[in-house]
Every structure is written in C-alpha cells, then in structure tokens.
Specification:
37% helix; alpha/beta; 2 domains; Rossmann fold; five-stranded parallel beta sheet
C-alpha cells in the first residue's frame, strides 16, 4: 500500500482531534502544522511537527515541500486563515487541498450570507481560481451536536423538539464524530489524490426524520416530547435578522431551515463515501439506548442562546 504524505492544520478541536487520531492510526505519514505558541507535547512521537505562521509564505511553502495532501480542520475562527494555503500551495508539490467544512454545505443565496459559510465559499473559490485541486467533505449534521445542544431544534436531555417547516417528515443526514474520523482516514490515507480531485464527497451514517427523532425520544422517556412548531418564514426572518445585526445564531437558524425545506440531505450530494468495515450507529442506539457521546463543553451563554431558539 502506498500512503499519501499528509499535512494537518487544526488538530486539537472536538472533531479535528478524532480525525487526526484516525489519520495517524491509518499508517500514513502525518505532519502537524501548528501555530506559534501551541502546545504539541502530547502528540505521538511518530508525527512530524512544524511550527508555522500560515501568513508567513516562506515558512509555509517550506513546510509543504514534502506533502501530497493538505487537510485543514480549523473551526469557525480559523477558516479565513486558510487563504494562506491558497497562496502557498502553487509553490509546492502538494497534489490536493482539503479545506475545512465539517458541516452543511451552503447551497442557497441566504446560506451563503451566513458569515462562516461565506468565508468557506471564499476560500474554495480562491483555491479554484488559483488552479489548486481540492476535495470537499460534507456530512450534514454531527449527531453529538444535533441531538444534545439544541442547534438543530432537538433537545435530547430535555425531551423537546422543534419542527421547522416540514422537518417532521424530511430527513436529516447524520454522522457521529467517530464515523467522520474513520471516513477521513479511509478517504485520504492511501487513495491516489488524482482520484479525489474536484470531488465533493458526502458522508452519511444514517438519516432520520423529525417524526423518527420524536418517536425515539418518546420511547426513551416514556412520554411524548414537547413539540414546538416554527414556520420556514419565521426561520428565514431569523437568519436575516442575525446576519444584519451580527448575532452569531444565523448558522443554527439556517441549518434548521435546510432540514425543514428538505434540502439538508440534498446538500450532502450524490458522491457518498461508504466507510468499509465500519458498523454504523443507528438512531435508536444513540437516543433510546443512550449511546450518544457528549459534545464538547460550551460556554453557558452559548448553550442558553441555542435553547432560547426553542421559544
């Protein structure tokens, strides 16, 4: 087996740490690019580590000379910094750039006005304009966040659910963090970059309608969940208001909209990568049997903001 030489930027986050560990376990040679001052003392000894300021083109170009694939896993605040890679990669031998997405791909005009979606789209366009081969990985929703923190209108601990538009009957595409990590390892560890270039690869562990989630909650708690109804029009207005006033909830409202209008599953596309040999989780296992893993700790004000959206 021939492995790709992979550089990872953004290895410490809730999702990115699991993906990073899966890539390391795959056997592919991994190099971590980390920001000045970051603590990398806990990284495995077999992982190359390079401190680099991605705005410093000389440093970044030097760090990428022996790399086949650059995988960025940065969160919201780091998305804009990926422009550093767009500028540097043409001066290297990198064969593939995988910008950070890890969510629902924006596909409508309103979604592209949501700040983080807009920034992601700008990075992708810049890479395309620079002639850099890219692969985008999209997954819809992480189960751990979709079910437990209220972002998608599901309050698993509180036995509540918001039906937005027709989300009672429309499917949401859902993946656990472990499934996404396994997929990244299978996709990028040894697949020739030429087979990945230009693709938007979707991940789908399972799908569920709002009614199916509601039924699982009822079985779990032995009583009907509290159901709140929001119209698509209300949610669209909330998105616009948040964008206009700079309120950091526009992404959450827009994600609910994509579920309610049936476009969430469509946003994952048709090029679905099925992780071979992986036993997929099911809705009942996660919610009824209580096997849902916790999401990362959020500041209390963020949690309160998400739950205020149930009103």
């Amino acid at each position: 087996m021939t492995f790709n030489r992979i550089a990872v930027y953004g290895h410490r986050g809730w999702a990115s740490s699991a993906i990073f560990n899966a890539l390391v376990s795959s056997g592919a040679p991994i190099k971590v690019l980390y920001r000045p001052g970051s603590d990398v003392s806990s990284l495995p000894s077999n992982v190359a580590k390079v401190e680099v300021d991605v705005e410093n083109q000389e440093q970044l170009i030097a760090a990428l000379q022996d790399i086949d694939i650059v995988i960025s896993l940065v969160g919201h605040e780091g998305v804009k910094r990926q422009h550093g890679f767009v500028k540097a990669i043409p001066s290297t031998n990198v064969k593939l750039f995988v910008p950070s997405d890890l969510g629902i791909r924006a596909f409508d005009e309103q979604g592209l006005q949501v700040p983080v979606n807009k920034t992601k789209a700008e990075v992708e366009k810049a890479a395309h304009d620079a002639g850099i081969p890219t692969t985008i990985v999209v997954l819809g929703c992480f189960a751990e966040s979709a079910f437990s923190i209220g972002i998608m209108g599901i309050d698993y601990p509180g036995n509540r659910i918001v039906f937005t538009g027709d989300s009672a009957n429309q499917q949401a595409n859902i993946c656990t963090r472990n499934y996404v990590a396994a997929a990244y390892a299978q996709i990028f560890a040894s697949t020739p970059p030429a087979q990945l270039q230009g693709r938007i690869i979707g991940l789908s562990e399972f799908k569920a309608t709002g009614n199916e989630v509601s039924t699982a909650l009822k079985i779990k708690y032995g009583k009907e969940p509290e159901i709140i109804i929001h119209s698509i029009e209300k949610v669209e207005n909330e998105v616009d208001t948040c964008i206009e006033k700079g309120i950091p909830l526009s992404l959450a409202w827009w994600c609910r909209k994509t579920w309610g209008n049936g476009k969430l599953v469509k946003g994952v596309g048709d090029d679905i990568w099925d992780v071979k040999g992986y036993e997929k989780a099911t809705l009942d296992e996660l919610l009824v049997e209580g096997k849902l893993e916790p999401y990362r700790d959020l500041p209390p004000q963020v949690t309160q903001a998400f739950y205020s959206m149930f009103n």
